Amino acid sequence: MENIADKKRAIFESTLVLIKEKGFHGTPMSQIAKNAGVAAGTIYHHFDSKETLILELYTYIRDKMLEAMLQLDNEAMDYKDRFFNFWISHCHFYVKNPNALFFMEQFVNSPYSNRDPLQENERFQNTFRDLIKAGVETGLLKPIDHLILSALIHGTIVNVAKMHLCQRVVIGEAELQQIVEVIWDGMHQQPNGAATS
Predict the structure, then answer these.
(1) Do 87 and 132 contact (CB within 8 A), yes or no?
(2) Which residues bind DNA (predicted)?
(3) Residues 80, 170: one domain?
């Protein structure tokens, strides 16, 4: 008997493909079920509505992003190394999962984002927030609201991944290191309070 988790994963992957092709409004539940290889009625055993499916898919992607980030993370590491690893692993995730990148961009610009399921215990949000807040609180990052710093960091990740996927420029590991170094230089604060020169 097929595992329930496997069926949900198949539905999620089917949804990602179809949303990239047809957008949120052009992707009916029946088509998602067909592409996932499940019966039309079966999909409603897992998700009571398309909205529920979209919101759960959003959380699923965020969890996958966190898994990718945590593979290289260790709280005992130097903060700068953790910052670099987070940025690079996050960028790698989007490059390896372009459908997820497209979905996330569509989601944040859709009415679904107003019903964002993020809670105080949402793992990705908390991990990302805690990393940035730790940098600010220890004086390693400039004393700017962590939400602003998070937006700047995530914005560069998304744009670099898109540039790579569109093949506008060649972005290898050396280029990723150069890019994140520039970002770090802009956000890092020297012990005397002066910005990195």
Answers:
(1) no
(2) 28-47
(3) yes
